[in-house]
Design a protein that fits this description.
Elements lengths: L1 E2 H7 L3 E14 L5 E7 L11 E5 L1 H10 L13 E13 L3 E14 L10 H11 L16 E6 L4 H15 L4 E6 L7 H19 L3 E6 L13 H7 L5 E5 L8 H5 L2 E3 L2 H89 L26 E4 L9 H6 L2 E6 L2 E6 L2 H6 L1
Helix pairs in contact: 4-8, 5-6
Amino acid sequence: MGDFIGWLRQRLQGEHAVRACVLGVEPAGGDSVLLVLGEADPTGTADPPRIKARLNLAERSAIAEERGGSFDPTALVNRTVEIQLRTSLRQRFGRGAGVQAKVVGLITVGEIPIDVVLQREAVLQRLRLDGVPFGPKTWREPEDPYHVGLIVSEHGDARRDVETSLQALEVAGLLRIHRIWAVFEGPSAERSLVAAMTEAEALHAEHGLSATLVCRGGGPVSAFGPLNSWAVADKARRIPNLVCGLGHAATPRTALDEVASLSVATPTAAAVLIRDLAYRTAVRALRALAGFDQAVQDDIEKAGRIALARAAASFEEAVRLCLTEAEARLGIVGREIERSLLSAIAGLATAKANGGAHAHDHEAPTGLPESDVVPEENGVALVIEAGTGLVLTSAAQAQQASHLMLQFLDGVVTVQVTPQSLTAQ
């Protein structure tokens, strides 16, 4: 008699007595059922390889006769058995060659089933009595998921499904997946799951896991028995943000599903949930970055407008000061030119008066002091004879002149003096 894996690897045809664990019973139509067999004592952390062996009515009757009564195949679930199998090769359409097995006889059945298998409702009732919160109310959505624990079979389909969904994020460095291998079926399943959850708890203490996924593929209902055990459920409720993706859409809920913070139908759905959390975080980050960029742009534009307004005001003030200074300087230049012209005219007039034919008894002035030729406000500044440029300083001189030039602040006017106007004056 050899172990299950040993004879399966060495020979594919013949009749063999093997030691295995009955993982489940499935109806096969008619009067036959399929026993789902796996290794009795699996080693490592992988799920036990499975093979389905057909048990028809004739063998069932023979086994019942040998055991001295009725025989129910479902009583074998989660028990170690020694069984006689006849194996052969078969060609499966599109899937290549496979092994088919048929139950010939049942040699021995383990007397004690796996003691960690408890009824789901009994486990949940015990959890409720403890008063420790569990279930969806314990879920806290992480704002920036990064460290994620994954409890999964090393060689199962569930691992492939999860990694396919999260591969892009992991390669990009947006997620770090901490893989924890566990066995989900067979006698060692409960011990393996408890050890895996203990490791996940330690990882959470070290890294602050955003979530921990527990994933396994589909199978018969009886194969989910370890997930209903008290030991697994009690350990699972200590892990924050535990997400279960067990079986498929038709798989009944287990105690682990009820304890978990979130429970979804399949391993792929659990991976998609984490992926969506990461995407939502990315969207929030992009929005925050866009808001920051807009705020910076608004601040720059505001500062630019203020600086431009200040520059314009400074320019206008500088222009005003320049105009004011220019006007002041032009005024000074104008007054200097006017003084210079008046002084020159006065000097010429004095020189002509001293040497001309119209000399009088009174000494003609040689010139006027600069203070006398400064224009007076709102009056005549200077009166000279138009023809000679002689400065008139008395009424007698004005009577002798025929044309006079009146110098005002806003210009020069030439007037003609007639005897009538002089007599009238």
